[in-house]
Input
Amino acid sequence: MRQPSSPGVPYREPYRPQVHYTPARNWMNDPNGLVWHDGEYHLFYQYNPEGDEWGNMSWGHAVSPDLLHWEELGTAIPATEDEQVFSGSIVVDEQDTAGFGKAAAVAVYTAWYPKTGLQAQALAYSTDRGRTWARYAGNPVLDIGSKEFRDPKVFWYDEGGYWIMVVALAEDRKVALYGSGDLKSWTPLSEFGPAGATGGVWEMPDLFELPVDGGGSKWVMVVSLNPGGPAGGSGVQYFVGDFDGVTFVPDDTSTTWADHGRDFYAAVSWNGAPGGRRYWIGWMGNWDDAASIRTHPWRGAMSLPRELSLAADGGRLRLAQRPIAALGGLRTGQAVRLGERKVSGPSILPGQAHDGAFEIVAEFEPGTAERFGLQVGGAIMIGYDVPAGELFVERGPREAAAGRHGGAAPVEAGRVRFTAYLDTSSVELFGDGGRTAVTDLVFPEPAGRGLGLFTEGGTALLCSLVVQPLGSVWEALR
Output
């Protein structure tokens, strides 16, 4: 998909997301350094300050009070001739264990050395709320002589009183765990994997404890995979289990996907979010398609931030993802509300604008239909596949990697319920209490964004539908 070259009105360019984070210009991929620090959510990310293709890997930086309205602060840790700055994480060193200052923000990132191809873990630190960064003179702090050793996620382990690092041994399909008292000297603790999906390299690990709906808690190990994802190309899998400060032991090693769409990758969580909440965000992209998607003057978008918990599903625990509650504050204008009616074939929704972002809440009874749901323009479908028992997004033939991407969701008490967030170039679909998510980039023609209902193979009953416009998070920047 190639977009017109004219940049247009800032933050109103064709296909510019209106409720998702994008940089003003240039290439962006993996989220990095997610941390709550001094009253702000920080979002760092893989960034090319020189252009709209992957390269010159540096950390871009934005801050937000609510995970939706972002202020872009530019390049935080720039690439140099000798070192590119790959993915990593940030901790707030409240006890000054590293000696950079009490409550200094410390970035632990993968340094890639172009001359040798080696990857090692390095530090940078900030004492001014993340506005300026200095590299540690003793870098790298962890070097095993590997070209596939990357993406450290670091957190403070309260029970042991030390730092934990999870870092990918990419081609081995393993996650290595290390411990440290000062962020500078690291001791091997254990390894996890191979397990689950192993069709591609392992990247972007994360490890965190989550409450279980109904009581108690468990630990979750997250691993991104490329290729071999559920819809081809990139994907994010996770394992639920126990962690004793040294070893992560999964309850089972079957493959469980965090998102069944094609465009949710490198998801990691925020350290230190208020109230002990666990939020995460992913890059809305797929390495198989990234080169063919040409937006201008930016390239790359983040998913909506999602709050995580663990919910029972039969005899297993699964991640439940719910878009953050702050999205409710973006609701604006007149919603389209429909009550009970039969749906047979396609029909256009009345009074629906074609521009901007929308929150869609729908409830159906399947009836005799094989598929049913909503249609965007003539080529994009968001709905339920009865024979497969799946929620799905289907992209039309002009889309990159066109086709249907879906995840299992049961019919409960005879009904199917789902919530979707439709932005100018993406769909995020949630169902089954947040246990099922499907995220896809979509690029409908600007004149073809009208919404309608559809059924295939029979008739369905629409029980209720609310299509709620969402205001732009960029309003102040236009």
